[in-house]
Design a protein that fits this description.
Oligomer: single chain
Structural class: alpha/beta
Radius of gyration: 23 Å
Largest sheet: 7 strands, mixed
Distance between the termini: 14 Å
Helix content: 40-55%
Shape: globular
Strand content: 15-25%
Length: 518
């Protein structure tokens, strides 16, 4: 889910508009439809806020990641908390045993294919601004180092998952939907394609922000709607061998009470009226799903071919695991961890459990894909009144279990004492040379304010003097306990990172969510 530095202000605005976010039980009522949604829906909040006045339906949105949301629905955990779901696609969800029985009516609201967007000069250089282009052509150019791109993590975001499925289907020799056995066959071609990836992210919106900050990257694989919404226009490349599109099905849960079914029907019908469809197209750059609504010229005239989606969950999971462990650029993750005296007791235990979950202890689908990956370098920097000695671990490409066990033992041995030197410790992380050929990121977790060593201004000055490669390392800040919220947000803004709030949820859930960005 994409985070914002003005979450409190946003929540208040949404409540006033008739569309609420989160799990505020006071927002429940006979006119409230509780919707579990993907973060991609966030740009519809202003429109949904009008539904209260126009059709008498207040929409309460709670955001989650693609895999986590699918698990909530399939396990039944969503039954009592939500009346409907709204993800960019239900394809993965439909592959989980028992999940289809949890779903009732599905209404497609809009559409957006996942395509490649390139800076105009790069598209012209490659000749992709004219004439047909295939995913095979794109993979060949990627292998040759002729362009670079960003894409979201397929384990966290549907745009990345759709891109992975589409590229694999196009590059494989399969006649129809890819099978699990065919994944290994197409893996070398996937390695060629993803050798050009330079940015990753946990959401399509955050990827767009990261791309805008990094002039080194030539483009993005993302939703057409996101690419069209950029301030600096890109040339969109629609591969002639096909794409995978999101169709955003607003879906009633089978467990929804009778009165909520009526609200769902009113909302779905309203969203598909020609006037609202046109407004969605104009405001969010998504294609209308209702026949008869004229397509805006900015979508171009390319005929879109839909590539086949896996028809077994085993294939989808194998694709994601292969991407993470073999195909993508490996990660360098540095964890700067508060072990000061205020962390003693339940807090240090929560930190231990959050790290242990990332070693494979969390066996849910989202937990499995958020563990420390093969080929990844993980460096732990515990701190109290001063930065501790960095402890690096490199997970091997094969047989990761022994190193994951070492990380688990490290986490179990964490103790709490002393003061809190946040900025000296964060500086110690940034002073470590960036690993060539890796995605680098830093996780900063603290439960209090800085009490020792240098302050924010000193850190900011040193950060701006870092080599360019290190300056492009984002810090993902985890709010916990009595964290200084304003200073933590300043760190995230300065470094191009994001803020994750574990004060009302758990460290484990925050750490797992951050893994989508690493």
């Amino acid at each position: 889910m994409r985070r914002t530095l003005t979450a409190v202000v946003l929540a208040a605005a949404l409540l006033a508009a008739g569309c609420s976010a989160g799990d505020d039980d006071s927002a429940d009522g006979p006119d409230v439809l509780r919707v579990l949604a993907g973060s991609e829906i966030k740009d519809l909040e202003p429109l949904l806020g009008r539904a209260a006045d126009e059709i008498g339906v207040r929409v309460r949105l709670t955001y989650t990641g693609t895999l986590d949301g699918a698990e909530q629905v399939a396990s039944g955990r969503a039954d009592s908390r939500f009346d409907a779901i709204w993800f960019s696609s239900n394809r993965y969800l439909s592959l989980i045993d028992g999940a289809p029985a949890k779903l009732s009516t599905q209404t497609k609201i809009m559409a957006s294919p996942v395509v490649l967007g390139l800076k105009p000069a790069k598209a012209e250089e490659l000749g992709w601004d004219r004439g047909p282009v295939s995913w095979t052509d794109i993979a060949a150019a990627a292998k040759g180092g002729r362009f670079s791109f960003g894409m979201t993590n397929p384990a966290s975001s549907n745009s990345g998952f759709s891109a992975l499925v589409g590229v694999a289907a196009a590059l494989s020799d399969a006649d129809g939907a890819l099978s699990a056995e065919q994944v290994s066959t197409v893996t070398p071609k996937l390695k060629d394609f993803f050798s050009a990836q330079r940015l990753t992210a946990g959401s399509s919106g955050w990827l767009a922000d990261a791309y805008a900050r990094d002039p080194r990257v030539d483009g993005m694989v993302n939703y057409e709607s996101v690419l069209l919404g950029l301030r600096d226009p890109l040339t969109l490349v629609y591969p002639g061998d096909g794409v995978v599109s999101a169709d955003y099905p607003l879906t009633l849960l089978a467990s929804a009470p009778e009165e909520k079914k009526g609200l769902y029907g009113k909302l779905a019908a309203w969203l598909r009226t020609p006037a609202v469809q046109k407004e969605i197209m104009t405001g969010t750059h998504r294609r209308p799903i209702v026949p008869g609504v004229a397509l805006d010229p900015r979508f171009g005239s390319a005929q879109l071919i839909e590539l086949p989606f896996p028809n077994q969950r085993r294939t989808a999971d194998e694709l994601i695991a292969t991407y993470l462990d073999q195909v993508r650029v490996p990660a360098e993750a540095l964890f700067v961890l508060d072990t000061s005296g205020s962390m003693d007791g339940d807090r240090i235990q929560a930190l231990r459990q959050a790290l242990i979950a990332l070693t494979g202890a969390d066996t849910s689908a989202s937990g499995t894909f958020s563990r420390f990956r093969n080929r990844e370098t993980v460096t732990m920097i515990p701190f109290n009144g001063q930065a501790g000695t960095p402890v690096p671990f490199t997970v091997p490409e094969r047989d990761p279990a022994p190193v994951l066990a070492q990380i688990k033992r490290f986490a179990e041995g964490l103790d709490a004492s002393g003061g809190t030197a946040i900025y000296d410790s964060l500086t110690a992380a940034y002073d470590r040379p960036a690993l060539p050929g890796h995605y680098s990121s830093i996780v900063l977790m603290t439960d209090g304010e800085n009490t020792d060593g240098s302050g924010y201004d000193d850190f900011a000055t040193r950060y701006r003097l870092l080599p360019e490669a290190r300056r492009h390392t984002p810090t993902f800040v985890v709010l916990f306990g009595e964290s200084d919220v304003e200073e933590m947000r300043k760190i995230a803004t300065l470094t191009g990172g994001a803020v994750f709030d574990a004060r009302s949820s758990s460290l484990s859930s925050a750490f797992k969510e951050i893994r989508g960005y690493q």
